[in-house]
Write a structure and sequence with these properties.
Layout (H helix, E strand, L loop, with lengths): L12 E5 L14 E4 L4 E6 L12 E6 L7 E12 L9 E8 L13 E5 L9 E4 L4 E3 L2 E8 L2 E6 L1 E6 L2 E6 L16
Antiparallel strand pairs: 1-2, 3-6, 4-5, 4-7, 5-6, 8-13, 9-10, 10-11, 12-13
Length: about 190
């Protein structure tokens, strides 16, 4: 005895369909698999990268394992800040990216992908020191420059700070060793 189920869903797409006379088994328990809705990708981005992945941001989604062509997408949801997960997941923001052309999906369910912002800001380049190394006194910002067993106060100019670092535009040279905490002789 056959039973016919009518599934009415706006935008339903047949993903797979068993042929006439095919046998249903525990491995293939249904005749058809349907996809309803807009295909999307979920990911977590770090605090450092979060400014590039705001609501409505245009992104490119590509496979991490093969040469599958990249697809474009739009960030359609961004969560509040999430702490680090027990499974090694970084703290940050969970995103959902809706793929803009869901007719030809080159990705499989559960496949690893990379999400890259299309209009990302240019990377900031420069000399950076840990923010905790920057000290302030008398309206000046400075670091303690380490030389052998002594430290010298060096006034620095800080352009910006972020993610625990300060970008130094004057006062230090690459390779300089700065005291991060405490003082010399402690």
């Amino acid at each position: 005895m056959a039973e016919i189920q009518v599934v009415r869903a706006e935008g339903a797409e047949v993903v797979s369909l068993l042929g006439v006379g095919a046998e249903l088994t525990p491995d293939t328990p249904s005749v058809a698999t349907l996809r309803i809705g807009i295909p999307s990708v979920k990911a977590r981005v770090s605090v450092q990268d979060s400014e590039s992945f705001t609501m409505g941001a245009q992104v490119e989604v590509s496979s991490v394992s093969d040469a599958t062509p990249a697809m474009s997408g739009v960030v359609s949801a961004v969560s509040d800040f999430q702490p680090a997960g027990g499974d090694g997941e970084v703290p940050g923001f969970d995103l959902e990216v809706s793929l803009t052309d869901p007719t030809e999906l080159p990705f499989q369910e559960g496949q690893g992908v990379t999400i890259r912002p299309l209009h990302a800001a240019a990377p900031v380049v420069g000399l950076a020191v840990p923010l905790v190394a920057v000290r302030e006194a008398g309206g000046e910002q400075y670091v303690l420059l380490m030389k052998e067993n002594s430290a010298t106060k060096v006034v620095v100019e800080i352009a910006e700070t972020g993610d625990g670092y300060a970008r130094v535009t004057s006062g230090l040279e690459e390779g300089a060793r700065v005291l991060v905490s405490g003082s010399v002789g402690e």
